[in-house]
Design a protein that fits this description.
It is a peripheral membrane protein. By secondary structure, the chain is of the alpha+beta class. It has 4 helices and 4 strands; from the N terminus they run ααββαβαβ. It has a domain of 81 residues: Ubiquitin-like (UB roll) (Roll), CATH 3.10.20.
């Protein structure tokens, strides 16, 4: 190894956390049978992400603003959950933003958003009845 090349250690990035349990065996060099691999992909990841909701503009403030949401859920689940908590109909406009900056796609996973944009152990979701940012 030359003096210019950085030392690289195999394995998952510490920023992304440990691999899911169904991939841990393969990561450690163990081989999965095709049946085990298929069953492992069907298992739902039950880890939770703490989501903090913050009202923006004229949106009503929630009494409880911290919730634990399953990490493997798509963001559309968060949208539906917030509509239910606020008592808003599907026709009512609802704008959601991550960290007061951008609106994620409904098919993004909560885990991916948390890994990329989590702040102090929370995923901060700003909500408003009118467009607030970009």
């Amino acid at each position: 190894m030359s003096a210019l090349s950085p030392a690289v250690t195999p394995g998952p990035s510490p920023a992304l956390g440990a691999p899911p349990p169904h991939l841990a065996q393969a990561a450690q060099g163990g081989k999965l049978s095709p049946r085990q691999a298929l069953d492992a992909t069907k298992q739902k990841d039950l880890t939770k992400v703490v989501v903090r909701f913050k009202a923006t503009g004229n949106a009503p403030i929630m009494k409880q603003n911290f919730y634990k949401i399953t990490a493997s859920n798509q963001f559309r689940t968060v949208i539906a959950f917030l509509r239910k908590e606020l008592g808003w109909k599907p026709a009512d406009s609802l704008f959601l933003y991550i960290n007061s900056s951008f609106s994620p796609a409904p098919d993004d996973t909560v885990a991916n958003l948390f890994k990329c944009f989590g702040t102090e152990g929370h995923l901060i979701v700003n909500y408003s009845s009118t467009q607030a940012w970009g």
